[in-house]
Amino acid sequence: MKISVSWIAVILILVILLFFLVKAIDELKTLEIYEESQKVREGFQGSFSDLDTELNINTCPAETKSYVDTGGRTVCCEGEVVGGKCEGKRVCSLSEGIDGLPTCSQWLDAYLENKGRDRCPPTMPHYYENRQTNIAGCTAGKRNRDGTEALPNTKFCNLYQSKDDDLIKEDSCTNQKIFDTTTCFSRPVKGTNKRFLSWGKIPPPIYCSALDEGSISPISCIDDSTFIRTIDYWVDKYSMTGFKNWKEQSISWGAYWKLNFCSVVQKVGIDKTMKLADLESYKVF
């Protein structure tokens, strides 16, 4: 049986079209995998591949399901797994990172970093949390393998569930962040030190001391912003209505009482832009 040249041409064209169709499908799948992996990055900053983490987990993150992909790798899926494929969003891999998808340890590190970015103090940047105990905090050192607590003998602070505890306790991350970012004076002053003052069940203000050049005895004062926070809390919490306008009333305070505050001390004792006599009519806040 002879086959005409025209039929051969048709068959060749069909083979070529089939080849390009298969290739296009493969490229489309590759694009879908890439786009899906890019979605995982949303909400995180930086590159997963650049993360050097002490975390090492071997289970999928909460509310995700594990499945084995066509390459024999265990992947975690946020959504339903149908026919061995993730119908939702691939989150991470319990095997090696693939197609831009991070390992689950890298994903957890990025998740914790993102969650603690605005909550952790600069000196304790590593966030941890335990969802079972509702305990969370930040540490200056390393965390345990699953990121649920700080390792022993490392500096850490607590993110308290209670708003009052978060404001009052000195070891709260809120207070530690305030402590880290408090400078006491508007310019660098030689020998400046700071510490919290414990005033009972109100947010602790920060006490500053310094030994400025040419000074024999240390200069000491209370940081203005933390003092304002302390008194505002006290007035509101204990309904001290007679002190609602305490900032306006500060003009009547005695000169030496006004010297408790760092902004005043800097003007009088450091910058020399004011004299003690000027404080009689000076409004501190």
Summarize the structure.
By secondary structure, the protein is of the alpha+beta class.
Written overview of the protein:
- The chain is an alpha+beta fold.
- It folds into three domains: 40-116, no CATH class; 118-168, no CATH class; 182-281, no CATH class.
- It is 33% helix and 15% strand.
- A hairpin with a 2-residue loop joins strand 3 and strand 4 (85-86).
- Residues 7-50 have low confidence and may be disordered.
Secondary structure blueprint with pairings:
Elements (H helix, E strand, L loop, with lengths): L4 H36 L24 E4 L5 E5 L2 E2 L2 E2 L2 E5 L10 H13 L9 E5 L4 E5 L16 E3 L4 H6 L4 H9 L11 E4 L9 E5 L8 E4 L1 H14 L8 H4 L5 H4 L3 H9 L15
Antiparallel strand pairs: 1-2, 2-5, 3-4, 6-7, 7-8, 9-10, 10-11
Based on the model shown, name its key terms:
285 residues; alpha+beta; 3 domains; three-stranded antiparallel beta sheet; 8 helices; elongated
